Amino acid sequence: MLGEKALELIKEMERSKDGKLPAYNDNCVRLVLEEMTALFQQNQDDVNATVAGEAQYYPGIRLRHASLERNKRCLLAYLYNRLERIRDLRWDFGNILPPEIRENLCDPEIEWFARYSKNLATYSRSLGEGSGLDLTHDIKPPKNIYVEVRCLKDYGEFEVEEGDVVVLQKNTTHYLPMSSCQHLIRLGVLQQVD
Amino acid sequence: MSDVDEDVVAASDDEEMMTAPEVLQRLEEAWIIERMSPTLERHQTDLVDCMLDQINQMTENLKRCKKQDFRAAVHKMEIDRIRYVLSSYLRVRLEKIERYAHHLLEKDASVKDQSETVLSPEEASYAKEYVSSMESHFQKVVLQQMPEIIRGFDAVKECVRPNLESYIFLKVKEATPGVLLEDDTGDGRDEEVDLEEGSQYLMRYNTVKDLLQSGAVVFI
């Protein structure tokens, strides 16, 4: 059926809304593009076969053209929604993606991710007349200066502000300043203990 | 340690003098409005820059004071809070800039007076780069492989626009009589309301956006 594959792409995005970003569906995108080329070719043939003043092919041409437009829209929606999810990844993981997520992106998407990261960094640096402010920090309102954290992975030495160094070993708990350890919490190295 | 909170600072272009707590209060107001408004409000770069400068100064001052000083903890907490407000405010803006990038750039392009723009120069270049990176991605991945006649990408047609007809809660700071509420159903049941100071309303964004600009109302 016309446009079925394109709809599949949209459904795929809808279904995975709260979960992990699904792998880039290269196969499906290619099938949609092939369908478009075929539709276009058929339309070309019909237009060429039409003698001036004859209208018998028009409904078919219109239908195919509508399908073309629809396929295009679905493809763009698919890409756009993926980019939005990839943008969210930048805010969650920083500018280096974990390999298990990275493998679900296609090459142009990885390129886009790098470009987005760079753009965001440029903007962050420009804040405050050049002094800069990292917007990916301070996601939650601060409740306390210090938080109790449990270490989930061996991380090694970690420098807290003013040169104090703590060694983060698995299954140890520490009492650290929120401002210096929140990125480790987001990376999953530390877990906040309430 | 000097009490930085009492420093008098210049915060806007017309060199209007404000104290740091006033700047913070204005910033918090802008933050709430930005979070509630369906579209992007005018940028407050002066407030942001001023407050960032204050934070940096306070951090410097803190370094000089003794570690055991209990006041240090209180001040540090305050810095953390201000920094949260600042970055949350800028994050909300960025989110909207990304979503409505094309629309906002178009809107700013039609404004003649440079001081009237919604985006700050840095935000504008961010938005431009964002839009162009998206477009080149679309081009590269699918558009170029499409049949020629359908390949074009019309950003004006595809872009997302904010819904200016959405409803927002607002609080009146200055009494404003005779605000016209137009009836969109076309039955001609237009209404006029007098906004009294201190009262709260639920209204459409479009009807009150001018009042918001002039500072007569704030969102809650």
Could you give the distance between the termini of chain A?
A: 55 Å
CATH 2nd-level architecture of the largest domain in chain A: Up-down Bundle
- Domain count of chain B, please report it: 3
- How much of the sequence of chain B is in beta strands? 5-15%
Specify the CATH architecture of the largest domain in chain B.
Up-down Bundle
Number of strands of chain B: 7
Q: What is the count of DSSP helices of chain B, taking H or I runs of 4+ residues?
A: 7
> What is the averaged pLDDT score of chain A?
86
Radius of gyration computed on alpha carbons of chain B: 22 Å
Mean pLDDT of chain B: 83
Secondary structural class of chain B: alpha+beta
What does this structure look like?
The complex is a heterodimer of chains A (194) and B (220). Chain A has 194 residues and is mostly helical. Helices cover 55% and strands 11% of the residues of chain A. Chain A folds into two domains: 4-126, Up-down Bundle (Methane Monooxygenase Hydroxylase, Chain G, domain 1), CATH 1.20.58; 146-192. In chain A, strands 4-1-5 form a three-stranded antiparallel β-sheet, with helices on one face. In chain A, strand 2 and strand 3 (165-168) form a beta hairpin. Chain A is elongated. The termini of chain A are far apart. The mean pLDDT of chain A is 86. With 220 residues, chain B is of the alpha+beta class. Chain B has helices at residues 20-36, 45-64, 70-99, 101-109, 121-141, 155-158, 205-214; strands at residues 8-10, 17-19, 167-172, 176-181, 191-195, 200-204, 217-219. Chain B has a three-stranded antiparallel β-sheet with strand order 6-3-7. In chain B, strand 1 (8-10) and strand 2 form a beta hairpin. In chain B, helix 1 packs across helix 2 (45-64). The longest helix of chain B has 30 residues, at 70-99. The interface between A and B is large, with 42 and 37 residues.
